[in-house]
Every structure is written in C-alpha cells, then in structure tokens.
Amino acid sequence: MKRLFLGLVAFSLLFNPVSRAEEMKNEGAKEIPKTEAEWKKRLTPEQYDICRLKGTERPFTGAYYDNHDKGMYRCVVCGNALFSSDTKFDSGTGWPSFSDPAVKQNVRLIEDRSHGMTRVEAVCAKCGAHLGHVFEDGPTASGMRYCINSASLDFEKKDS
Ligand SMILES: [Zn+2]
C-alpha cells in the first residue's frame, strides 16, 4: 500500500495537474500573488505562515474543523475549488479532514521530508499554497485522510 501511495504521488508530480486545473471553470478564481509582498498583503499573518511558510495551525483552533455546513472549501489564496463538504468527516484530530479532493487535479501531492519524517504534503495545484498533509488512515473507501489547515481554506456555503 505504501509503495502504491508513493507511486501515486510520483504520478501526480509527473502529471503536472496545473494546466488541466486551469481549463476547468472556476467561479471563485482570484489572481495569484506574484511577489512575497503581494502574498503578505493578501493574507493575514497566520494564513501567510501556513500557506506560504508551511506552518500548522494549532488543533481545535481553526474555523472549519467542526463545520458541518454543506458547501465548497476553496483555496484562501486563489479561490481554487479544493474540497467538498461531501467528503468531510470528523477525524477527532482538530483539523478539517477530507477523504478526497473535490477535483483531483486541484490538489497536488508532494513528498515532504521535513521535521525528520516522510510525509505527503498537500498543496493547491494552482497557486502552490500549503494546505496540510495526507495520511493513509482514512475511514472511507478512499482510505485517505487529507488533514487540512482551516487557515488555508475559504468556505463557500451552499444554500439548501
Ligand atoms: Zn490556491
């Protein structure tokens, strides 16, 4: 399973999902910051720390870990559609957790060897914002747990 998972990561790296994702209609699209100054101006200090410097918010402090409303979680930086509420589950970790991306090409997976661990980092395929990490202990059929910082997300509530 581990080998298959890393194979999938390698595949997603080779696949270069950006161009495909850009072809998709994206209502929430916002311009991607070009300079560090623009990133800082666009984001709060906490969002900048997480999205740009790959930080992690403290568990049970984010806006969305306990959000049960229906809707779309978009990238807080560029508006890319990342996760649907349909795949959100209560992981008990204190971070919003999803079994799958809303659109596979919109979330890119990268091997992360920081902090003496080998993990899989999830980033927005469009702007490169750090989102969180992916683990293979999800409770649904996908077997995946996308453990995502609330600060990287902008929730668009769906009425009805
Ligand atoms: Zn983005």
Second CATH tier, the architecture: Beta Complex
Query: Tally the helices: what do you get?
Result: 4
The secondary-structure class comes to: alpha+beta
Q: What is the CATH topology classification name? A: Metal Binding Protein, Guanine Nucleotide Exchange Factor, Chain A
Determine the strand fraction and express it as a percent band: 25-35%
Low-pLDDT parts are 16-24
Number of strands: 9
Radius of gyration, Cα only, in angstroms? 15 Å
Mean pLDDT across the residues is 89
Tell me the number of structural domains.
Answer: 1
Can you list the ligands bound to this structure?
zinc ion
Shape: globular
What is the fourth-level CATH superfamily? Answer: Peptide methionine sulfoxide reductase
**First CA to last CA: what distance?**
39 Å
Secondary-structure element string = HHHHEEEEEEEEE
For the largest sheet, list the strands in their spatial order.
3-4-8-7-6-5
Helix content: 10-25%
What's the short version?
Helices cover 22% and strands 25% of the residues.
Structural features, described:
The protein has 4 helices and 9 strands. The protein starts with a helix and ends with a strand. The chain has a single domain (2-157), classed as Peptide methionine sulfoxide reductase (Metal Binding Protein, Guanine Nucleotide Exchange Factor, Chain A, Beta Complex), CATH 2.170.150. Strand 1 (71-75) and strand 2 form a beta hairpin. With 160 residues, the chain is α+β, with helices and mostly antiparallel strands. The relative contact order is 0.22. The chain has helices at residues 2-15, 17-23, 36-42, 45-51; strands spanning 71-75, 81-84, 88-89, 97-98, 107-112, 119-124, 130-135, 145-148, 153-157. The chain has a 6-stranded antiparallel β-sheet with strand order 3-4-8-7-6-5. It has a 3-stranded antiparallel β-sheet with strand order 2-1-9, with no helix packed on it. The structure holds zinc ion. Zinc ion binds next to loops.
